[in-house]
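anyone seen this seq b4? input:
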Amino acid sequence: MMNIFETQKVYDNFYLISERISPTMVCTMGLVIGDKTAALVDTGFGVTGSLRKHVETITDRPVICLITHCDPDHAGAAALFDTIYMSDLDDELQPWSLKVDKRISDVTLASHRNQELVGYMKTHMVLSEGIQHQNLHEGEEFDLGGVKLEAFPLPGHSKGSFCFLNREEGYALTGDSVAAVSYPMLLALRCTSLAVYAKALRHFYDATGEKMGLYSGHRMDPFPQGLVKDLLRGCDEIFSGDTENDRSARFPFDKVVADDLKPMEHLISDSNASIRYNAKRIY
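predicted toks r here
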C-alpha cells in the first residue's frame, strides 16, 4: 500500500493531514477533534479510499466532513464520510470536478506525471463522482464538544467558498479561499470578480484581524502574518490601475481559452505574494 498521507499535530485537538502529490504539492486537510465529534475540513483528490481509515487512527470520534469548496483536490474523497457540509453555490462544479477522469488528469499533471502514483490512484481511488451534502450558512456553528467551528463565506475562488474559524483557539481553515500557497487564484470563469473577492476578504479581515493563524488547503504551515493585508493592498493596486508590470498567468491544470478571460498575475508591492486574476472581470 502506498502511504501518501502525512500527519502533523498542531494542538492536542487539531491536526493537519496532507495528501502528498509531489515534493512541492500537497492537498491539506484539517482535523479538529471535540469531546463528542470531530470535523475533517476538506478531503484531497481521493487518490486512495483509505482516508477515512487514516482519520480513524487519529480519533475514535464520529467525523463530519466540511468542504471549503468543490474542487477536485478538496472534495475528491468527501463521499467516504456520512455527513457532509458544503455550500449549495458550489454544486455547479460537481458534474465537472468530481469526475474520475478529471481527478486522474489533475493528479497526473500535479505529480509531474508520476506513473507510480497515477497507477496506484487508478486502482485505489475514491470512485464516487458526486456527493450528497447539507448546505452551509454564514455564521453556522459546529459544536464538536468543547470546540466550535464557525462557517465563514469568502467567495472568490468559487462562488460558494467557505472558511472554518476556531475563534477561541485563534485559527481558521481556509482552503483556497484566502489564497492557495501565496496567491489567490481567480482565473477560472467560475470565479467571482476581483471586486467581489476583495469585499469578502475585507469582511474576513475585519472579523478575524491579524493574529488568527490561517491554514491553507496547500500548506502544512500557517500563512505569514500580514498576508491578508498584503492581498487587500494588491487588490487596491489593481483597482487603481497600477498594473503596468503585471504578467500573464498560467492555469495550474487545464488551460482555458475564452473571449471573456484574460489571466494575469499582479505582484504586490513590498510583498512576496501575488494575485492571479481575470483582467476582464475586475468588477
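The radius of gyration is 18 Å. The chain has a mean pLDDT of 96. kinda curious what u guys think
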